[in-house]
Amino acid sequence: MGRLSSTEAVLGPELFKTVRETPVLVVGSGGIGCELLKNLVLVGFENIEIIDLDTIDLSNLNRQFLFRKPDISKPKSIVAAATARHFNPSSGIKIHARHGNIKEFENDVVWIKQFGVVMSALDNMDARRHINKLSLAAQVPLIESGTAGYLGQANPIIKGRTVCYDCVTRPPPKSFPVCTIRSTPSEPIHCIVWGKTYLFSKLFGEDDEALDEEELDKAKADGENAEEIENLKKEAEAFRQVRRMLGEEDGPQRVFKKVFFDDINRLLSMEDMWTRPGRVKPVALDYDKIMAGKFVPPPQRQAPAKGPAANGSAAPVQSPIPRKAHGATLKDQKELTTKENLELFLSSCQRLSARAIAHPDVVLSFDKDDDDTLDFVTAVANLRATAYGIPTRTRFQVKEMAGNIIPAIATTNAIVAGLVVMKALAVLKDQATLNQSFLRQSTNWPIKNSDMDKPNPACAVCNDIYIPLKVDLQKLTLGKFVEEIVQGWLKPAVAGDDDYEVTIMEGGRLLSDPDFDDNFGRTLADLGVTRGQYLTVADEDSVFCRVHFCITAPEENSDKRYTLPESVPEVPKRPTPAAALSDADDDEIVMADSAPPLEPTRAKRSGPHDSETPAKKQKMGLDEADAIEIQ
To answer: What region holds the THIF-type NAD/FAD binding fold domain (predicted)?
Structure first.
């Protein structure tokens, strides 16, 4: 009996044959991706392509089991493929591993059409939206997945049959006002963001005076306190002087005095700042008193209750292994005293200064796996929190929050990866009913299945029409694209003799509309259009669904400027807009291996999805290489 005889018996000969012959694509080789690749090999898939942009770092080793310590800094996809082959060495398995970005131009509609199923194991919204649109354009089934702590989900996405990733509206990532971060923090996350993105970059990052000035001017234009902004500009200049002191023996001590004593006293002198309700005056930190053990910290503010963190993100996931009350506390989980935080600040400053002096051409940046940078951010965040009466955080908690991560749990990844394969098998079997699965923190009902919703009529992604266009970008002008392809080929089949004016866009850029034909004489290449992008055609009255021409490479050994499909696809009229599905609890400031959406409530609705109806836009002159960005 062969190694896969049991699998064949379970799946049946027909489905097992389909599994062996179907090429599949795995996007991402992290926590879910490693488990998924192993599962695919063991089930019997023999033609697998995997792509990932990342390299292996130390923090991956506790949950991404295809990697070992000698693999650190190597491409994830290549190492994962090499390791996974050993799980089924006797088969004719072919794993094509690529170290690259799924958004690269060669990964276009023609490329992705070669796969029978695409499986997403991504960890960020932008890439997930990209693979969602690409799969819909090519009409290739996509299995979307994600985990966050003990929670997870897996669901199929098929054009015309199920909701897609963009059918659910998601709020933008959390952000914090400049003045809150720099002058009036009230939560631990404010102090951590300040230490990571502001103080660290001021002392050890690239000294970009123009960028800092631009950020403060924007904050002022957005209505933040003008007096505070002017003081922050003065503070930025003072930092440039302090930065030069870091290499001196007492440099870290002088930096401490400037940041935690002088600057705080300066803020205290601005009486109007502290008259607003809810603002608490900070206390200047005295270096000598802290080192002598005589400093008395101010009373702490009310600590947040259990549940969601104050910044809207999920509260840090606690370790499932309880600490022993009588045991030694782990270094990273120790609550540091004010003196210990000060000593950690001095030590990390010295280490980072030595690195900056030894390699002046290398710009330091925060890395949660770099002990020096993590020590620095932990120390300064806790010192700032102490000054403002905010609860401090352990080094482990700072790493979680500064790295924008939820601690990944290996068993969650394993379960979700198994669910992904089950969804893929259902798609290959062409089951009439497809469902989505949610992994929950419940002992009675850990995995909940529910039928997939139909596509959201208001979705501006999955209801649109996608047409592959093989084109020589150097030869085809925008004018000929409109005249021959849009007006000559597409419009007669869609609108007949009716007169509809159209707008042409690429992404958020306006290329032409009925009142703007200045770019008609320019080639698509001259307009910055590249392979893998979409030229979007929309009628001005928004009667029909939008049509996206998917730009692909021209036919080889052909003098044709472009090649179109044999027939014009049906372009339906826009459906009556319905309310978009809502996923208000999906907060993109917290990223796990892939943060999953919550279980949907079918009656839950929010405002309408942005259908991106074109309007009259600002015109672009012939001499402008970049088209106009539309928000």
So the answer is: 10-459
Q: Which residues are annotated as a binding site for Zn(2+)?
A: 164, 167, 459, 462
**pLDDT higher than 90, residue 618:** no
Q: Which residues are annotated as a binding site?
A: 28-33, 52, 60-63, 76, 123-128, 164, 167, 459, 462
Q: Is residue 476 part of a domain?
A: yes
Distance CA 516, CA 616 (A): 9
Kindly report the pTM of this predicted structure. 0.69
- How many Cβ atoms are within 10 Å of 386's Cβ, its own excluded? 25
Residue positions forming the annotated binding site for ATP: 28-33, 52, 60-63, 76, 123-128
Q: Which amino acid is at 234?
A: K
Q: Do 279 and 361 belong together in one domain? A: yes
Are 336 and 375 a contacting pair, CB within 8 Å?
A: no
Q: Which residues contact 14 (CB under 8 A, 6 or more apart)?
A: none
Q: Which domain holds residue 513?
A: 465-574+613-629
DSSP 435-470: EEEEE-S-SS-SEEEEEPPPPPTT-TTTTSEEEEEE
Q: Could you give the C-alpha distances from 519 to 477, 526, 528, 550, 556, in angstroms and in order?
A: 9, 10, 12, 20, 28
The residue that leads in pLDDT, 601 or 545, is 545
Residue 299 per-residue DSSP state:
P
Considering 179, 349, 545, 550, which one is annotated as catalytic?
A: 179
The answer to whether residue 607 scores a pLDDT higher than 50 is: no
Compute, in degrees rounded to 10, the torsion defined by CA atoms 86, 92, 93, 97: 100
In a domain, 584, yes or no: no
**Residue with token string 């850990």:** 446
Is 545 part of the annotated catalytic residue set? no
For residue 125 the two structure tokens come to 């919204």
